[in-house]
Design a protein that fits this description.
The chain is an all-alpha fold. The protein is built from 5 helices and no strands. The longest helix has 11 residues.
Length: 62
């Protein structure tokens, strides 16, 4: 599940949602929605998240 994997990836880097906002320039509300499964990031944002979390899109979405 993408939502859980995004949250785990963030926790592995010991970051808060607000800290991710400062690094990737997206809203905290968006991160919250993605991590709660209410919505999903678009492909470009997913690429940016995978790069930021030092993982692959495949690992986030498998």
């Amino acid at each position: 599940m993408l939502a859980k994997r995004l949250k785990v990836a963030r926790h592995k880097k010991n970051l808060t949602q607000q800290e991710v906002v400062g690094k990737i320039k997206i809203s905290r509300q968006s991160i919250s929605k993605w991590e709660n499964g209410a919505s999903v990031p678009d492909i470009n944002t997913l690429k940016a998240l995978a790069t930021f979390y030092e993982t692959t899109i495949h690992d986030l979405t498998k």
